[in-house]
Amino acid sequence: MSYARVLCVGLVGVEGHLIEVEADLSPGLPAVVLTGLPDTALHEARDRVRAAVVNSGQTWPNRRITVNLLPATLPKHGSAFDLAIAAALLAGAGELPAAPLEGVVVLGELGLDGAVRPIRGVLPMVAAAVRAGMTRVIVPLGNAREATVVPGVTVRAVDSLHRLVAYVRGEDRLLDPPPALPEPPVGGPDLADVAGQELGRYALEVAAAGGHHLAMLGPPGAGKTMLAERLPSVLPPLDDASALEVTALHSIAGVLPHDGRLVRRPPFQAPHHSASLAALVGGGSGLARPGALSLAHRGVLFLDEAPEFANAALQALRQPLESGRVLLARARGNTEYPARVQMVLAANPCPCANPAGDQFCECTALARRRYLGKLSGPLLDRIDIQIRIQPLSAAQLMTASAPAEGSPEVAVRVAAARSAAAARWSPGGWRVNAEVPGPQLRRPPFRLAARDTAVLRAGLDRGVLSARGFDRILRLAWSIADLDGRDRPTGTDVDEAAQLRMGEAHDRNS
């Protein structure tokens, strides 16, 4: 037999596609020709596969070998095709029977010694295989635990090409995936560590309840970073669908922990202010990789010292914050990644950032305007909550009274508020208040009474409030009502939401 076919999976963004790896061996000058839009890493598979086959004790066929990857119009990236290519050409050369690999998806990168090495993106690849009707996959041993989180598929592992060859010949068996590890204890920063800052704590709770974006302006050392880092601790764990999405993105980026568990805790990404545009929203040559924005999907993207970020990087966030997805256009095609995040911005009020507050600021009015002007109006218009954080006093920092409320207590209220919102918006498929379209809030049965929105309508008519800001205040009002256990916002909720939006809110206890 001079022809054989083995199944594999290719990724375009986070979407997987079933790929047929064909190998045809014909008389002629010995060569390996790879077709089907392979990238550079895949072109180099010719040399990796040849060395792996020879070093595994197999005979390399000295014929003209054509390897085709179907569909040929779909770009192919990476080294995940190595093992499938080796199996296809050995079967085409008559060295292996083809029947044992019928209907089996084969994934893995080959080392020159024949070892099968882990690859990125196994989870979305296996999920794509299941959607295509496949029920059996063979993956590298280092990815086996990760692959088992996808339901409806039988996973077997290999550590070398020699083991795969022995299995196909009926001389050996494949490896079982390692057993699942116990769940690690839940830990991390706790809200109880934050001294004072009642307004910041309340704004964080409202943001968590409704999935709202948050901006905090205040002097250094006031607690902005501490608050932002504790936002994930009050968010509910990810459900199965969200956990699969997030884990798939982390797998593609190569940052998934080796334990192979689903990511259940909302992710937290805090890129440095020197991060490039590609690092923030995604990019790279060839296949565009997910950036911090997508790695924070269903979690928190924290931009500390936000005015220090490059202007182009900040402005690139505007469209994804609205759509929840980021589209990366490249010459060889477009790549789309999910990016439904809660963004938290933290900024000093001026370049000098005097910790004593505005009254001791040494900056000119022009310097202050220029510094905060880096946070453009269109970007801030997408931030639901905008508050000013005040410096801490010695009494607040050194108080000996009972410790502040911790994350577990706040998380209970947030979970109850989110459950109420999910039950209300489930017919439309929305999970949290921040995802609800504005028109849905402005028509019955969810339209609020005219007396409750009079201030908002007046602000809209005067031009001090945009239509986007109008809708975002309504969403905030629903979140405040959910936290307080009411089934509908009142005029007081709308006024409080407007204050949180306009940066005019004060401590509830003051």
Walkthrough of the structure:
The chain is α/β, with parallel strands linked by helices and 510 residues long. It contains 21 helices and 18 strands. The chain has helices at residues 40-43, 45-55, 82-92, 122-131, 144-147, 161-168, 198-210, 224-229, 240-253, 277-281, 292-295, 311-315, 318-323, 365-372, 377-380, 394-398, 407-425, 438-441, 454-462, 467-483, 491-502, and strands at residues 3-12, 15-26, 31-35, 64-70, 104-106, 109-110, 116-117, 136-140, 154-158, 214-217, 268-269, 282-283, 289-290, 300-303, 325-330, 333-338, 342-347, 385-388. The strands form 6 sheets. The protein has a 5-stranded parallel β-sheet. A 4-stranded mixed β-sheet has the order 1-2-4-3. α2 (45-55) crosses α3 (82-92), α7 runs parallel beside α17 and α7 crosses α20 (467-483). The radius of gyration is 27 Å and the shape is elongated. The mean pLDDT is 89.
Summarize the structure.
The protein is α/β, with parallel strands linked by helices and 510 residues long. It has helices at 40-43, 45-55, 82-92, 122-131, 144-147, 161-168, 198-210, 224-229, 240-253, 277-281, 292-295, 311-315, 318-323, 365-372, 377-380, 394-398, 407-425, 438-441, 454-462, 467-483, 491-502, and strands at 3-12, 15-26, 31-35, 64-70, 104-106, 109-110, 116-117, 136-140, 154-158, 214-217, 268-269, 282-283, 289-290, 300-303, 325-330, 333-338, 342-347, 385-388. Helix 2 (45-55) packs across helix 3.
Based on DSSP secondary structure assignment, what is the total number of beta strands? Answer: 18
Termini Cα gap = 84 Å
Annotation field: number of helices: 21
- How much of the sequence is in beta strands? 15-25%
User: Into which percent range does the helicity of residues fall?
Assistant: 25-40%
Shape type: elongated
Over the alpha carbons, how many angstroms does the gyration radius reach?
A: 27 Å
Q: Give the strand order of the largest sheet, numbering strands 1, 2, ... along the chain.
A: 11-14-17-10-18
Question: What is the typical, i.e. mean, pLDDT?
Answer: 89
The profile of the biggest β sheet is: 5 strands, parallel
Q: Which structural class do the helices and strands define?
A: alpha/beta
In the predicted model, the low-confidence regions spanning at least 5 consecutive residues are none
